[in-house]
């Protein structure tokens, strides 16, 4: 097992720009899960399926089960474990010699479905099981929009950078990598969002915290969109 983990470390995807939870907790956890999956002969697509099973179980609990302390803990555990397996599938693919287009497609489709349905499930749970003011419903609606746009923007940025590199042979450097930056952007970390669901059993506590995380994500997206547009403009001015 130790030799497999060491090999995974050598083939590790760059952590540039990754928030603290993803960088220091989720990726190492995914490395261990990938090593276990490799030893068990699992495929990256199989690991993606396990990630989806845990994630969508947690999401279903939000919409179908009345909030209690135990349901909140269970939701958080399902989402955290699902996120760890989400980190494991790509690492397993690299360990096996590289991923496939179909595997990357499946991984991103599951991610896109997950980040949208999570906030819609929060909206359903809020409507069905709480007596909070209707204005709170605007938060998960807004969060669903912000999460979907942010995910699409990041995927589009990566795609356009790869196209630029393939056309010109020039690698495009990404943003900062410091530990301080990882801490500063932690409110945008999906892993942090997973963890705060331990508060789900106390809606009057959960929703203010959830609203703050949403506000941070919305603010980050507004600032990032300006930077991303400038970055893409810089690619336009590069060699053709």
Characterise this structure.
The protein is mostly helical and 240 residues long. It has a single domain (2-236), classed as CDP-alcohol phosphotransferase transmembrane (TM) domain (Four Helix Bundle (Hemerythrin (Met), subunit A), Up-down Bundle), CATH 1.20.120. Helices cover 77% and strands 0% of the residues. Belongs to the CDP-alcohol phosphatidyltransferase class-I family.
- What's the helix-strand series? HHHHHHHHH
Total domain modules: 1
Mean pLDDT, nearest integer? 90
The helix fraction, in percent, is over 70%
Per DSSP, the total helix count is 9
Given as residue ranges, the uncertain stretches (5+ residues, pLDDT < 50) are none
InterPro entries: CDP-OH_P_trans (IPR000462), CDP-OH_PTrfase_TM_dom (IPR043130), CDP_ALCOHOL_P_TRANSF_CS (IPR048254)
GO molecular function, one term: phosphotransferase activity, for other substituted phosphate groups
Protein name: CDP-alcohol phosphatidyltransferase
Pfam families: CDP-OH_P_transf (PF01066)
């Amino acid at each position: 097992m130790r030799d497999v983990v060491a090999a995974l470390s050598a083939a590790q995807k760059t952590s540039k720009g990754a928030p603290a939870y993803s960088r220091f907790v989720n990726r190492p956890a995914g490395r261990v899960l990938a090593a276990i999956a490799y030893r068990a002969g699992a495929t990256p697509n199989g690991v993606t399926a396990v990630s989806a099973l845990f994630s969508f179980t947690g999401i279903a609990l939000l919409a179908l089960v009345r909030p209690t302390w135990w349901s909140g803990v269970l939701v958080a555990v399902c989402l955290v474990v699902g996120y760890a397996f989400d980190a494991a599938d790509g690492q397993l693919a690299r360990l096996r010699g590289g991923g496939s287009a179909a595997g990357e497609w499946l991984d991103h489709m599951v991610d896109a479905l997950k980040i949208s349905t999570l906030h819609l499930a929060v909206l359903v749970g809020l409507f069905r099981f709480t007596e909070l003011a209707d204005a709170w419903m605007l938060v998960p609606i807004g969060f669903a929009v912000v999460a979907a746009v942010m995910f699409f923007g990041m995927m589009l940025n990566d795609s356009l950078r790869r196209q630029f590199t393939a056309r010109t042979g020039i690698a495009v450097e990404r943003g900062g990598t410091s530990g301080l930056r990882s801490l500063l952007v932690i409110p945008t970390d999906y892993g942090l969002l997973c963890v705060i669901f331990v508060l789900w059993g106390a809606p009057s506590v959960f929703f203010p915290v959830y609203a703050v995380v949403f506000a941070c994500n919305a603010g980050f997206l507004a600032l990032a969109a300006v930077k991303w547009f400038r970055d893409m403009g810089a690619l336009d001015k590069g060699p053709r």
